[in-house]
């Protein structure tokens, strides 16, 4: 069954914004990254959007409406294809939508009616023209396979199948689930779209250094799922050797709207059989380095802000100078938004000695020698039969033996027989019958041969033929002529 999914991205730097006249209106054309391959947490939870599903339905997005925020009725997401919603919420349509294989993403151009956009929300056009980030969010109908899994260390509750587009909304007040960090959205700077965003580079760096297998992360996700309720769900964010950092998402009763999102850390143990058990109480942690929240003011830490700034600049410079690091000079400003601890962690990862994997020794597989099939004697096969079947066969064998004895006796009784009894007993039944047919003369009954069949008298049957009565005494004493 297909259900309506909404998830959020934002405007992206894949080109420049231009202003044209379209459909008799002044129109702003802004490039958008709408969906990237990956796990995205939308209105129905985290789902994996594979590149194949995105690519095969790319053309269907051409012409979909662009509303401001997702249309809702009765506290539920609804389709944009309603006259009232089109009139009061939409500001344009998507065109030139296509699949970008290099980005593994769905990209297109948002055609925005400038006059109507300014009427409904005057922040939309001004923020795009100012080069500011602006969140966008797709609304689509889709099915899923219902199989929980892990993709690049991110857990999900199913893989999306059969996308059917409905709309793509602008969200001036929200933060996207597929945000700049995921390489989505509209950012209208002049650098073009060939560079991966800093946030996307950071995510790839973190993913590449996660040593836990997808199977192990799935076990932890299953344990966390047992703590879910109607108002709160939990999703794995990062797995360490002895603890897991997870996201707690609180939702409103009835509507399902997200009302809170917090990060927590929880210890776990693994027994000899590989079973995972969560232990202790969850502790709220910070986003950057997952350390406990202490709520201290900046001046209570005792750190020197100027010294911290110098350290951060040195770390950023080292990251940019590292040939193995994906960051460049254009990323320095964004890197400055990270904490010193996070920057140091990235620096340490980049300078780790590469792990040399020992060559795998393929085990020697000995050829399997199959045992010779055991020969079963007739006696063993007979003994293994069902008792009732065995008794039936025994009776049939007894009758056959008796018949053979009679045939042998008949043949031996013929005075011209030349066979010995031993020779006859060794012959099969068919041969014995053939010898009997020529060696033993049949008995003939001569009791009625030459007799006259006469009709019995039946006085009761009027149609019966009466026997001829002849009076021999009437001609006695007469000559033949006289008679």
Topology diagram in text:
Elements: E1 3-10, E2 18-22, E3 25-36, E4 38-42, E5 45-49, H1 51-56, E6 65-67, E7 72-73, E8 76-77, H2 83-89, E9 90-100, E10 105-113, H3 114-120, H4 123-129, E11 135-144, E12 149-151, E13 154-156, E14 160-171, H5 198-208, H6 214-225, E15 232-239, E16 243-251, E17 258-270, E18 276-284, H7 305-321, H8 332-335, H9 340-350, H10 378-383, H11 387-412, H12 421-426, H13 429-439
Antiparallel strand pairs: 1-11, 2-3, 3-10, 4-5, 6-9, 7-8, 9-10, 11-14, 12-13, 15-16, 16-17, 17-18
Any overview of this molecule?
Helix content is 27%, strand content 27%. With 483 residues, the chain is an alpha+beta fold. The chain folds into four domains: 206 residues, no CATH class; 85 residues; 35 residues, no CATH class; 58 residues, no CATH class. The strands form six sheets. A five-stranded antiparallel beta sheet has the order 2-3-10-9-6. It has a four-stranded antiparallel beta sheet with strand order 15-16-17-18, covered by helices on one side. A three-stranded antiparallel beta sheet has the order 1-11-14, with no helix packed on it. A hairpin with a 5-residue loop joins β17 and β18. α7 runs parallel beside α9. About 6% of the residues have low confidence.
